[in-house]
Amino acid sequence: MFFKKKVEVGKTEDVVMVAPRMIDEGVRKTLTPNSPRILFSQAHDLISSPSQDGTGSAWATTRSLALAIGTLTSGSIGSSAREETLMDLFAEQALWPLVIATFRESYSLLKSLGCSDKALVHELWLSKEPAEVFEKAAEDGFLRQLGWHSAVSQYGQLKGSGEVDVSKMRERMREVGEKRILGGEFEKEFSKLEEERDGGVLDRIGELYKEAEKSELCQGEMRVRERLGLNSAAPRN
Asked: What is the pTM of this model?
């Protein structure tokens, strides 16, 4: 909000931000003694540099806040409010929506080709293989983690990713980055939901959940989790 000039701050005031790079549960786990994920999680801490240094000591304030909440265990990354906002919203509105859509469509296609719900759910995410892959990407490098896969897997992923037509994807990503985020379209949309709906944006989120849960992926997962007696501890807005 500050880099979009929606918040008025006196020129003699400091504007700083400390933003751990992890979802809520991951942040809590980094502060839990003997957590097996603590080093991996802490490696993703990020500290934004001051957006406004009105007192001349904004950096010191930023570092003090970060130290106080325990996020300097393995270092920090200097950034800015603009960069952090752009990256964060881009991931939420461009990158991860594409990931979700890819899983959803892959599930439906494989189901139509004869794969069962139980096999698909375990293969695609319940086994936690994707989590292991991303952990190796953090440890060894985004591309180099492929070295832990079979030759068949390495060949398929490298060749296949190079053959994908990304023109529409790139067009969508640019629209999100330039128009929705930097251009202010998302800000207006979000504010309008808060102003015009009794339940605000949470009301719309509830509708979006109901729409998403109609997919074959969600319906199939629901059946598998019920059969296995698996409950979700994730909060639901």
From this structure: 0.82
